[in-house]
Design goal:
This protein has 122 residues and is an alpha+beta fold. It is built from 6 helices and 3 strands; from the N terminus they run ααβαββααα.
Length: 122
C-alpha cells in the first residue's frame, strides 16, 4: 500500500474515535514510520528483533498532575511495514491500523497492556 493510502487509514481511525474520547485528547501527535528503530523497540519493551506495530510515548492522562506542563507532546507512532507484514489484504490492513490506533490511544488514557489482555481487548 502506498504511503498516502496508509496515512488516510490512520487519519480515518483517529477520526472514528468517539467524540467524548477525542475531546479528551491533549498534547498528543500521531506519526507514521516505516519501521521501528532499536530505540522504539526498547521503549515498547520489545527485543531488538521484536515485532512492534505501534508505540505510545508520553505521560498518560491518568498520571498527569497539576505540575504537568511545558512538555513536548505525547507521541503515537504507527509502523507501516510491521502492519503490512502481518496483513494479507487491504481490509486486513485497515482493521489492523484501526485496532493499533485504538490500542495506542488506550495507553494515552493510562490503560496498560495487562489490563487490555485481562479485559480481552488486546
Amino acid at each position: 500500500m502506498d504511503a498516502k493510502s496508509f496515512e488516510a487509514l490512520v487519519v480515518e481511525a483517529v477520526e472514528s474515535l468517539p467524540e467524548d474520547i477525542k475531546q479528551k485528547l491533549e498534547n498528543i501527535g500521531v506519526v507514521i514510520e516505516d519501521e521501528p528503530t532499536a530505540e522504539h523497540r526498547r521503549a515498547g519493551g520489545s527485543k531488538e528483533d521484536g515485532f512492534l506495530m505501534g508505540l505510545y510515548q508520553g505521560v498518560p492522562l491518568s498520571k498527569r498532575t497539576h505540575y504537568y506542563g511545558n512538555v513536548l507532546p505525547d507521541k503515537i507512532t504507527i509502523f507501516k511495514n510491521s502492519i503490512e507484514r502481518i496483513c494479507r489484504t487491504d481490509n486486513d490492513i485497515k482493521e489492523t491500523v484501526r485496532r493499533t490506533v485504538i490500542h495506542e490511544f488506550a495507553h494515552h488514557f493510562g490503560i496498560s497492556d495487562d489490563h487490555m489482555k485481562k479485559s480481552g481487548t488486546y
